[in-house]
From TrEMBL:
Residues 360-423 form the Purple acid phosphatase C-terminal domain. PANTHER family: ACID PHOSPHATASE RELATED, PURPLE ACID PHOSPHATASE. This is Purple acid phosphatase. Residues 149-345 form the Calcineurin-like phosphoesterase domain. Keywords: Glycoprotein, Hydrolase, Signal. Its EC number is 3.1.3.2. It catalyses: a phosphate monoester + H2O = an alcohol + phosphate.
Amino acid sequence: MTTPTRAMALALLVLAATVLSLPTASLAVTSPYVRPPPRETLSLFKDDDADGQTPEQVHISMVGLDKMRVSWITDDDAPAIVEYGTTSGQYPFSATGSTTSYKYVFYHSGKIHDAVIGPLQPSTTYYYRCSSNPSREFSFRTPPATLPFKFVIVGDFGQTGWTDSTLKHIADADYDVLLLPGDLSYADFIQSRWDSYGRLVEPLASARPWMMTEGNHEIEKLPLVEPKPFKAYNARWRMPYDAGASPSGSNLYYSFDVAGGAVHVVMLGSYTDYGAGSAQLRWLRRDLAAVDRGRTAFVVALVHAPWYNSNEAHQGEGDAMRAAMEDLLYGARVDAVFAGHVHAYERFARVYNGKADPCGPVYVTIGDGGNREGLADKYVDPQPAISAFREASFGHGRLEVVNATHALWTWHRNDDDEPVVADQVWITSLAANPACNKNKNKICPLGL
Ligand SMILES: *[C@@H]1O[C@H](CO)[C@@H](O)[C@H](O)[C@H]1NC(C)=O
Ligand SMILES: [Fe+2]
């Protein structure tokens, strides 16, 4: 057999095994697949930037339903202007934003620019350039204004050979928005690694909105020397915390809508206060209370440290946050919660308060982007009944919200260099499930 045929046969076999295991929902599966060791960190040398004004590390993020923030970095001073239009080489529109920079111990960042462009048409390709620099043209496609809608979801990226493999598979997906539950660059205090990470992800992150929340690797606090957490993350990856129906006021947690409001995405912050009386908890209550589930078919949440986890790695780290917030999510009938942190894949049944519950969210750990710390392959034994599938491999997830009642979740293992669908499940909207909405005209989160 030729290699592609064998790979395809293998893919079909795994798919068949997965599909066969689906109807027996009570069957907990620990995949026997064992991954090769971590791959080396890539060296991404700096492009020559002779004039100091060549934009690099370009990425975009959604601001409301019809605007986009463009962020980029130049070595020297350059105008914070984005020029754009729907034809390559022609830029009839422009917007000017602002510039910032930061120092970290002996490191001085480049000039970090961002500008918000729009209103933009949905499902449309726009061409743009930054700082009026003619040497690099970029393009992106705006997300659709209605369902269906396609997300890619993956956390704990890093910048290794495995990251590269994951990024290639994501590039092959025809997705609308990427959701990242934290741990981006694994710069780990070495600030130039934020720059190399920015260059690594630019081809994808300049072409589709990348929306994220923070992980522990974003904190980068150094006692006395750098007492302020999230310095690089907040400067480089600014999210729309001041936009939308419930602005949070913090880059560390926020929410946004897609598909004309059919899907509401809640980005939670594992590494900022979330307990009783915290600003985050107050905001979350307000945010979920404002969601009209008659209009919003799906609500999904992202968080870094998983609230449900049967891997030995990071066991119990999400417990305090779960205790503070689980009731709110349950009350709002949040459909799914995606976490990172644990470098492996795990999917749970619908769960509430530690038990299977048909009105609770599906919990997924997707911290398997490919970072240099390698995989977390030690699991709690026996596998808890609420854990439906777990496997320590790198990969990425895709959530396709097909219509107002159905979303298809698939997990794509890197399987060396071929992407293979190794787990899949249909997630149905809890808002459309009468059994979960008895005695409720309007879903009202507990505690209001
Ligand atoms: C929604 O999608 C599911 C899965 O494809 C399908 O079975 C169902 O009939 C669809 N619902 C409507 C209203 O089209
Ligand atoms: Fe982490």
